[in-house]
Amino acid sequence: MYNLIGAGLIVIGAGLGLGKIGGSAMEAIARQPEAASKIQTAMII
């Protein structure tokens, strides 16, 4: 039972982290559109 709760918390944490990365990358691209390719590469890595 506790392992399922732990797995759920891990999945939620990972989703929040990926959302933060994507949101920050889009904000950076909006500020500097000419750096979009570098930002996207860094985001993927």
Short account of what is shown:
Helix content is 87%, strand content 0%. By secondary structure, it is an all-alpha fold. The chain has one domain.
Instruction: Figure out the total of helices.
Output: 2
Summed over residues and divided by their number, the pLDDT gives a mean of 95
Cα distance spanning the termini: 34 Å
Order of SSEs:
HH
Q: How many separate domains make up the residues?
A: 1
Shape: elongated
The number of E-state strands comes to 0
Uncertain ranges:
none
What does the radius of gyration come to?
Answer: 15 Å
What share of the residues lie within helices? Answer: over 70%
Strand content: under 5%
Largest sheet: none
Class by alpha and beta content: mainly alpha
Please explain how this structure is put together.
- This protein has 45 residues and is mainly α.
- The chain has one domain (2-44).
- It is 87% helix and 0% strand.
- The chain has helices at 2-31, 36-44.
- The protein is elongated, with a radius of gyration of 15 Å.
- The termini are far apart.
- The model has no long low-confidence stretch (mean pLDDT 95).
